[in-house]
Amino acid sequence: MKFRDLKLKSIVTSMHEKLPKSVPSTSEEGVTQISSSSSLQLEVSKENTINHPVLSAKSLGRQVQNRWVWQGLNFELYPGEGLGIAGPSGAGKSLLLRAIAGLDPVQAGKITFADQPLASWSMPHYRSMVIYLHQRPAIMEGTVEENFRQVYTLRSHRDKVYNRHKILEYLEILGRRADFLERHSSALSGGEAQIVAFLRVLQLQPQILLFDEPTASLDAQTTQCFEDLVKTWLTKQPKRAYLWTSHDPVQLTRVINRSITISSDQEISDGK
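and the corresponding structure tokens:
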């Protein structure tokens, strides 16, 4: 693999920081507890809620420098569902998404996707179906359109074809004109970089999206368009689903069906 391919692979999978591995512990702290959660706005059919989960976590635990960030986490993600991850800064919401994306290890429990444990998947193939959208995305040097095209040079996406017409449809929904494709990455604002990263992932048509504060740099109008586009993507294929972290509880009520709340004292609650 060429250096350029390695750099591109790093950007697409958002592998920006490395956290130290540590030895698993048998501590009983942070055991999952059940509590109520916010009201739900995004509808999911009864048929979907009783279907087999597309992704699940069982007794999941994450350590950083011999400290449990969270432990005893259990949840299931069903087709057609939006699952929220709430909690204060430092509670480990991003670490959970990165673990699900296969970017960071866990020290306890297991993650299952499509009835297979995470360890049994080829990571490039898995990450083509379960994609993490970083809250501070890396954009490659070049134009916006070059960013969209270059992901197709990766081996895991070479069976797909760049669709400029579809990208233009997405841009129109997000209030951007066709000439946005000609913008250089160095001229993009933080919000525009988030748009590019989102569409770069969306064009690949993954099965699960992992959103980490995806609209933090967007204005209110673009945020609403972003949320609408996510819902449109969700309904186009029955087995799609997503997880979403946000510090905005009002936004979460708009985009999720239920939530997991991780508190600063390691307690994890699953609300429905």
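(Above: one complete record from the training split.) The domain at 3-271 is CATH 3.40.50.300 (Rossmann fold).
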